[in-house]
Amino acid sequence: MTSLFLGDFGHGLIAAEAALAEAIRSLGAVDPIVVSATPAYTERCVPGITCIAPDDPLPRAVSQVVLAGPIFRRDRTLALVEAFSAAKAAGATPRLHNLSLPPGLEPAETAGIAVEFADATGSLRDHTSLLVLMRRRLPWFPDFACFSERTLGHDDSLSALLPEGPAPLGLMFDGTPLMLDCLEDNPAAFAAVMGSPGSGPLLPIPDTAPGLTGIVMGDAVLASRRAMRAARPGEAALLPALLDTRWWLENATPAGLAGLVRRCSALVTTTDFGVVLAAAAGIPCHIIGYSMDDPATRAGGTLAGALAPGSSFIVLPPRK
Fold it and tell me: What's the pTM?
């Protein structure tokens, strides 16, 4: 059975590639075809797949179309649902797997998405996406995947580069304008979490890469540097290569980042993938949200029962 995978792939948001790898494994897809904005990047993160570009014609004889993982932007959501509908019209069986819809969709848009999903089966990733679609009268109840990419596993390709010494405090920040405003307005809150005695050296772990096609999610490297300056002025990053975008694009993988997080004493994060990796590693996670529906807040609410003792969760006020 030939499966076509659609999602927010190839934009440098490695949570999407992590969800793709888990979807392929979970569904037992053989020779999967994946639509990616940057095929070489997605193929490096998820070996064994064949990628095509969004402008390429959809392959014929696809028996199943799978819309999987987190989608981070409204415009890409609408484009992906359109491609999902086209594959259905060509005869593919529709399936959702561990899907997250982004904030900012208009009610009429979510109603239209619910119509397109009416004949599908599968699962949703977070409680907010579930509630949005049920309110729009999706005629079936999806399985609740609860960020199933946390079962993906890890490797030591990056953690082997860490020097010997105390376990570091991991930092995973998204660098969106809202997050940077939050950091600028609330430096003491960030410093209180990152500057606690005995927390070890700081290890920034960006989970997004500026510069790939269509990326507007913000600069995770800039956010990491600003947060370090706010909390511990003058302290160097433990593995500075992670803050080099070119090096990150050539070396970072979902399993590699998971391996880094497992070496940390705790993780401070504003990203959903940070919450996922901390839950999988069994280390305390200190979540900093900057709205009631940002990705980290969603993940913190969905995975609250899976987080290690000592975890914390604050939502800071937005800039007025």
Answer: 0.94
Domains of the chain: 3-151 (3.40.50), 159-315 (3.40.50)
Q: Let me know: does 72 contact 215? Beta carbons within 8 Å.
A: no
Helices 272-281/14-27 angle, 10° precision: 50
Give DSSP secondary structure letters for the chain: --EEEESSTTSSBHHHHHHHHHHHHHHT-SS-EEE-SSHHHHHHHSTT-EEE-TTSPPPSS--EEEEEEE---HHHHHHHHHHHHHHHHTTPEEEEEEEEPPTT--HHHHHHHHHHTTT-EEEESSHHHHHHHHHTT-SS--EE-SSGGGGS---STTGGGSPSSSPPEEEE----HHHHHHHHH-HHHHHHHHT-TT--SEEE---B-TTSTT--S--HHHHHHHHHHHHSTTPPPSSGGGG-HHHHHHH--HHHHHHHHHTSSEEEESSHHHHHHHHHHT--EEEEESSTTSHHHHHHHHSGGGSPTT-EEEEPPPP-
Task: Per residue of the chain (320 residues), give pLDDT as tens.
Answer: 799 999 999 988 899 999 999 999 999 998 899 999 999 999 999 999 999 999 998 888 899 999 999 998 899 999 999 999 999 999 999 999 999 999 889 999 999 999 999 999 999 999 999 999 999 999 999 999 999 999 999 999 999 999 999 999 999 998 888 888 888 898 888 888 887 656 789 999 999 876 665 554 567 888 888 888 888 888 899 999 999 888 988 999 999 999 999 999 999 999 999 999 999 999 999 999 988 788 899 999 999 999 999 999 999 887 77
